[in-house]
Amino acid sequence: MRTPHRALASVLLTTFVCLSGAARADLDLPRPSPGAKVTQTIGLTDVTVDYSCPGVKNRKIWDGLVPYGKLWRTGANGTTKVTFSKDVTFAGKPVPAGTYALFTIPAKGAWTVILNKNINQAGTGQEYKAELDEVRVQVTPKAAPFRERLAFSFSDMTDDKATLDLEWEKLRLSIPIGVATGAQALANISSTLDNTWRAYANAARYLLETKKDTDAALKDVDQSLALHEDWFNVWIKAQVLAAKGDTKGALALAEKADAMGDKAGPGYFFAADVKKAVADWKKKVK
Predict the structure, then answer these.
(1) Are strands 80-84 and 45-52 parallel, antiparallel or unpaired?
(2) What would the mean pLDDT of 259-274 be, rounded to a whole number?
(3) For residue 211, what are the contacts with CB-CB under 8 A and spacing of at least 6?
(4) Which of 72, 85, 115, 218 could cross-link with 100 by S-S, CB 3.0 to 4.6 Å?
(5) Is the CB of residue 205 less than 8 Å from the CB of residue 186?
(6) Which long-range contacts (C-beta less than 8 Å, at least 24 apart) are formed by 247-254?
(7) Is there a contact between 118 and 133 (Cβ–Cβ < 8 Å)?
(8) What is the C-alpha to C-alpha distance for residues 185 and 214, in angstroms, rounded to an integer?
(9) What pLDDT is recorded for position 193?
(10) Percent over 70 (pLDDT), the chain
């Protein structure tokens, strides 16, 4: 028969064992290869690398832990992913915007660097399909100061280019990335101006059609025309002038809008209204 002290000790021991198991399950310790993410804006393009950082840990890395001539996931724990927010060139080759799995084939000389379209793969096993490679490029690594953990960073940045650097142990692999910032900026300017002139034109049209304020409508349509002249805003100004009693001025602009609209083709969706106004206003001017 157990004494009360022995019974209590048994209960406490059982409780400790159970709690120890729970504690082990919830124990938060550093990962052997912690996750990392680096993002760099190059001009108007964001480039992000999402990866894990294995350590050297006194091991031989090149042609040791990482064999030469074999596909490497270029990190640890899973596939390293590279995301481009806009189209880029990757070591001189065009790559569409999107997210890619980054693989390399290390070698004593030039490495093969691969962007693969399948980002849902754990590593370099049977999930990898060469036919899904977006690009393969050749890049020669250089010697670098010792780095314990693998890391990606960016260097040599301008508005039009940057270099993506992979560093680990005593090696640096530098991959040039080019972006079309100039063309993208011009497209943004054009798009913004296009939307702006339309916004002013639509504001003038609204004020005109609701008979709220023809003076404000005239101001808005003149702002629109200062940004870009189109049959649409020329026609709106013609209507504004007609509403203000300037039929002669309205006729001249309606005739101009009609000529511009005829050249515009299928986009001339108020053709019947403009032509009718021209005919009507000609009778009044005479």
Answers:
(1) antiparallel
(2) 93
(3) 243
(4) 115
(5) no
(6) 247/281, 247/284, 247/285, 248/285, 250/277, 250/281, 251/278, 251/281, 251/282, 251/285, 254/278, 254/281
(7) no
(8) 36
(9) 74
(10) 90
Average pLDDT over residues 46-52: 97
Q: Find tokens 């980054």 and name the residue.
A: 102
- What distance in Å separates the CA atoms of residue 29 and residue 22, rounded to the nearest whole number? 15
Q: What is the mean pLDDT of residues 28-52?
A: 92
Distance CA 225, CA 214 (A): 16
Q: In this structure, which long-range contacts are made by residues 260-263, counting pairs with CB atoms below 8 Å and at least 24 apart in sequence?
A: 260/229, 260/230, 260/231, 260/234, 261/231, 261/235
Residue ranges in the chain assigned as alpha helix (H): 4-26, 181-209, 214-227, 231-243, 247-264, 271-285
> Could you tell me which residues come within 8 angstroms of residue 209 by beta carbon, excluding any fewer than 6 positions away?
none
Report the distance separating Cα 46 and Cα 189, nearest Å: 19
Cβ-proximal residues to 82 (8 Å cutoff; 6+ apart), any chain: 47, 48, 49, 50, 99, 100, 102, 115, 164
CA distance 243 to 16: 90
- 135-169 in b/e form (b: 16+ CB < 10 A) is bebebebeebeebebbebebeeeeeebbebbbbbb
Region 130-155: what's the mean pLDDT?
97
Q: Side-chain half-sphere of 158: how many Cα atoms within 13 Å?
A: 9
User: Are 163 and 147 contacting, i.e. CB atoms less than 8 angstroms apart?
Assistant: no
Total residues found in the chain within this entry = 286
Strand order in the sheet with 161-179: 93-95, 88-90, 161-179, 142-155
Q: Is 71 left (phi over 0), alpha (psi -120 to 50) or beta?
A: beta
Q: Are the C-beta atoms of 238 and 205 separated by less than 8 Å?
A: no
Q: Which residues contact 231 (CB under 8 A, 6 or more apart)?
A: 257, 258, 260, 261, 264, 268, 274
- Cα dihedral: 177, 178, 184, 186 (round 10): 150
Site of tokens 């304020």: 213
